[in-house]
């Protein structure tokens, strides 16, 4: 019985290490989405940061539920504006003027959250 268990363990170990040595990593990652424009990436990062900050400040009591709701509504409006802008430009792109407009909206939110814009 011990020999059978030992034999199975040796066989398993041998095949596992042998398969691991010969295995070739595959790096075939295909995405149907084009890479984000740097302007768009910067805006998305600010959206994520502000959403996170609203939750943290609401939880800690630094802002009221009403203030959080107003900031979130402002973020939703800015996001809708961003979607409209990218649609005008053939998707996945923002002009520097459009980015500046969105940043103005996000700067107002940052001030409400007590952040530096």
Derived structural class = mainly alpha
* Count of strand segments: 0
Give the N-terminus to C-terminus distance in angstroms.
72 Å
Number of helices: 4
What does the overall shape look like?
Answer: elongated
CATH fold name of the domain at 38-112: Single alpha-helices involved in coiled-coils or other helix-helix interfaces
Major β-sheet annotation: none
- Output the radius of gyration: 26 Å
Mean pLDDT figure: 80
How much strand?
A: under 5%
**CATH hierarchy, class of the domain at 38-112:** Mainly Alpha
Q: Which series of helices and strands comes N to C?
A: HHHH
| Helix content range | over 70%
Low-confidence spans: pLDDT under 50, at least 5 residues?
Answer: none
CATH architecture of the domain at 38-112: Up-down Bundle
Please tell me about this protein's structure:
73% of the residues lie in helices and 0% in strands. The protein has helices at residues 2-22, 38-60, 65-88, 96-112. It contains four helices and no strands. Helix 2 (38-60) runs antiparallel to helix 3 (65-88) and helix 3 runs antiparallel to helix 4 (96-112). It is elongated. The mean pLDDT is 80. It has 117 residues and is mostly helical. It has a domain at 38-112: Single alpha-helices involved in coiled-coils or other helix-helix interfaces.
């Amino acid at each position: 019985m011990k020999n059978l268990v030992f034999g199975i363990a040796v066989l398993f170990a041998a095949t596992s290490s042998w398969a691991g040595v010969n295995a070739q990593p595959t790096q075939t990652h295909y995405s149907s989405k084009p890479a984000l424009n740097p302007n768009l990436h910067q805006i998305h990062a600010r959206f994520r940061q502000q959403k996170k900050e609203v939750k943290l400040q609401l939880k800690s009591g630094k802002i009221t539920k009403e203030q959080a709701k107003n900031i979130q509504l402002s973020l939703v409006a800015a996001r809708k504006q961003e979607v409209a802008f990218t649609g005008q430009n053939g998707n996945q792109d923002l002009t520097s003027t459009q980015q500046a407009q969105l940043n103005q909206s996000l700067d107002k939110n940052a001030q409400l959250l007590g952040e530096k814009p």
